[in-house]
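Running this now, will post back.
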Amino acid sequence: MNEKDFPILKNLKNNRLHYLDNAATTQKPKIVIDALRYFYEHDNANAHRGVYKLAEQATAMLNDARMAFSRFINAEADEIIFTKNATEGFNQLAASIEKTFIIDPKHNIATTEIEHHSNFVPWQQLCKRTGAEFRIAKYEIKDDSIQDISRLVDENTVVAAFTAMSNVSGLKPDIKDIIKKIRKINPDTIIIIDATQLIAHERVDVKRLDADFICFSAHKIYGTTGVGIVYGKKLLLEKLEPFFYGGNMISTVSIDESTWADVPEKFEAGTIDVAGIYASSMAIKYLESIGYEKLMEQEQVLKKYLLAELGKIRYVKIIGHNSKNNKNNNNNKSKNNNNYGPVVSFVVDKVHPHDLATIADRHDVCIRAGHHCCQPFMDALKVNATARASISFYNNKKDIDKLISAIKDAHKIIG
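Update: finished.
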């Protein structure tokens, strides 16, 4: 667990990069960068397409990577589908569910107000196309909680889709308990979890969780961009109709009819990013060499420090993290460690988040500003945008100190 493993952090001429936008994408360790280059220099071929040695090696590397991802979340290899990103995964699931099941106005689909757009809009649009009721679990700003989505589920609920960790506030619903409740109410409801944020910070075991589908992106866990992972229970994957056609997902084609390959290839039409998938599997190897316990310990220490330092500034308001329990919404000494991941959004009085992010950049500090692809959540919070600092294990207290200096500088200039 060494910051030297991440070349970009030392890439500025004179200063260390203070990268606090890990919820958007993580930086890549050298083992991932080297693996990507190695593939293109030594093993580049189209997987599944050739019988020559180079193609067979590329196929073997793809299969090895699939095994690595399956072990990572305690799934079977043929339950892992590769996509371009989690967003494509959610959209593909929505399209395949619509093609496979009868959905009409007597049905409903449930999601929450805190979802990333990628796990909100596909279900919204599916309801618009089919006439199904779109049910939304509401966020309660007074006590910083999200309504239990299981209360919206009934015998006509086709899909319940919800996040395991908010990318805005780091709020972590008790998804295991929620899934159990949904199963009791309607065992046929398809449960889809957005694990994009959680999986970088906690071990996800799909067998213990018992969701039907889980989506995440490799670039959130130190892998490359352009690689998404959809876990699905095999019986459901076999039942679902594919949405993309052509290439490797084909079994037979005639003038009148086509048949599909077995799972998982059934959902992987065309050439997929073998190099990125292979390199991203090295990120898993790197994570496992560290161990989630050490990773979580470092991130929790830094999260506490960030909340404490932000809490000292009277003109900063923290979003979530039980800020309601604290004097002036700022003195973050409450018991919040288990309910939130290391993602902290905040607003600075009289300073727009975009202006803050611009000034922070002058301090070599990278933070995110905007609605974070969560406009319904912003509406519930009654703000247009927030600034967001998100922590990785490679961060340190100096990164946070530099952010605090940038906030004070921005408020002095603008406020």
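The first helix runs from residue 30 to 43. More later if anyone needs it.
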